[in-house]
Input
Amino acid sequence: MEGFSDFWSTYSTLVFTVGIHALLALSIWLTLACGLLSLANAAFMGIGAYTAALLTLNLGWPFPAVLAAGALAPAAVALAIGVPTLRLSGVYLAMATLAFGEVSRVIILNLDITGGPEGLNGIPLVTEGWHIVLILAVVAYGLARLRRSRVGRAFEAIKEDEVAARLMGIDVDRHKLFAFTLGAVIAGLAGALNAHYTFFISPREYGFENAVDILTMTILGGISSLIGPVLGATILTLLPELLRFLHDYRLAVNGAILVLVVLFLPTGLWDSRRIRAWFARRASR
Amino acid sequence: MLEQQLLNALTLGSVYALFALGFTLVFGILAVINLSHGAVFMVGSYVAVLVVAHLEAPLWLGLIAAMLVCGLIGLAIDVLILKRLRARNAPHLIPMIATIGVTIVITSAAQGLFGVEVQRFPEEMLPGGDFTVGEVHVRMVEVVIVAVAFLLMGALFLALRSTQLGRALRAIAESPKAASLLGINVEGLFHLTSFTAAALGGVAGALISLNFNAITPFMGQPMLHKGIAVIILGGMGDIRGALIGGLFLGFAEVISKAYISSQMGDAVAFGLLFLVLLIRPSGLFGRVLERKA
Amino acid sequence: MSMLSIRGVGKNFGGLQVLQDVNFEVPGGSIFGLIGPNGAGKTTVFNLVTGLLQASSGTIAFQGRDLAGVAPHQITRLGIARTFQNIRIFRDMTLLQNVMVGMHHLVDYGPLALFFATPTCREAERRARERALELLSWVKLDHKAGLTADNLSYGDQRKLEFARALATEPKLLLLDEPVAGMNPAEKTVLMEEIRNIRDRGYGVFLIEHDMRFVMGLCDRIAVLNFGRIIAEGAPEEIRNHPDVIEAYLGREDQPEEASV
Output
């Protein structure tokens, strides 16, 4: 037990971070599953984090209520911007969500209540390890259920062929809005949890780079199942620790991974079809 | 003073336009949002400062070196990455994601090679001979920037408008398939476009660092965002739109910084951009090239 | 009584008039064919009926209800399903999933029922799965239900698209060149299946290029040429109609009788 508690005191932060990143990767998985490339999820995380932290600091709300607010605030924003934005397709949507992310960041940077560039300090450390595990488990379970339901099938149909999906009686706009908003809920939860265990948040954590990091995790893992994003989040969180010897070049590895995956593993590390085929081959041997 | 602000705006705007021109060219011809354009811009600054400050070469050589090096980087990105994705017929978001990876690699490499501390041109290497027109103080640097930017943009417009090459490129922008049936070397022109676009991005980086004289590995990303704003304002893939959009953004930014608040200037630009996307995705000034299959 | 009525319908793209004053009625419980040379505007008619395009003039009504401004997914829910000339199945999904997508609006349960996997939810999914297998067995693809759709041969892809369209429980089935790219044996089989569909009470409205197929199958035919209806009637009348002969012989893309 001695060994474990040593390990835990050294690496608990890392394990927490894996959990938060896994939530974020799942949040963007949801939109990608619907064929949407949204770069707004870092901003949704930020909105969740700031909402939660401000409610704790200024109003002293109980933690569950704070978490709920941290999930609902970005959801409300997602609903409001989703209706006009989701009409855009492909790169236009990516650009619009990127612009939204920048606007959110600059606004947070310039408001008084958010502490401007200095951010918010002294957020009580109320997030426990089991909170993250529990919420991650509930989210993963919920998404797994969703994936195997009529909604999950509709998402996949929309991703493959929007017109054909419409003609199958699917209300495409509503499903896209749902995916976008639920993604914002998950990202907001991740933000709220994160704010209450890092003590400090600032606008720098919710910019374009962070949106890209989240995307990288999901693309690396693959979007054919829920295992992919979680796997990608785990690898990209642990990798920098293993690559400390590379110093400033560390991040280059992330970039190179992104390029190599796109070029040579277009379905990501965890492609459920490939893995099923692999097992089938082994079984038939 | 308004006149002084207008000069600032013209200087900034012409660099934005030059930068956005390369960006929009790649979108128009290759149908790719090349998000590494900002990183290439940053490399242009470093190349120019290395050549001028460390090799003590004249400024014009620094600008040419920036164009060449960045052009080659753009070419490499096309040959090593985008070409393979084209061959595979990857969905159009995939090349965009790949160029995000390239951005991370280039930025991180610059950070490793040069560190995060600010690099500068030695003052004495910058063109001198500032003068005053009326009450406006004009720096020679600004004259150089505006002149070089407009010279290059003019050359590009001419090349696109009145040469055989320009006609071939316009054919590709309409439909690569049809163009290749007409006997146009589509792949070759994709490479050339990537080279030219990156060279323009690189020289834009060199020019802007003459103005602000503060070069860091992170200067590419805010510029990339401005580039995105410009090409959305101007219409994606629209060459003339990039010029007007770039100048427009320069003016909007300088004026809102001067008269509203220094930080909210960025929010104004992006808020505007966001609205434009929602109301008129084809851009304020331009039309989107409708690509036929 | 007619199921689908098209009255005075016109459609312009920019300055180009693709359809002009098109009138016809598609009756229920029978097979109606719309034929015409390439580029006559047949697929545009389908796009108007399914709500993918809006008519520039005239009205399209389904069972007495005006379809103007009704969204495509709502039109599907009213009971119109279609297939595509260039086959638009969901290639990365299994056959079973493809057909189950078609039942989207028929499988109903709330988010809570889904999350907690309540009996209602599981029962609804189970029934959908069974129904999907039944539809796949109609087109003799049930033994491939678990395969991914991109593994299918061309003919099987058409059949899958057919089953998927039926899964929406349409009253009227729109088939866009259902035998394109099929060999004569496959055509004969498909003809039989379309008759079966009609005999089960569905209305069938098809666009076709292959004259022999249409003549042998349809109860009633309308002919579209340069965006106008030039003839309408039973197959016998159409076969001998001078304008129709003119329209087909006067052009290069003749009916593919030779290929049958």
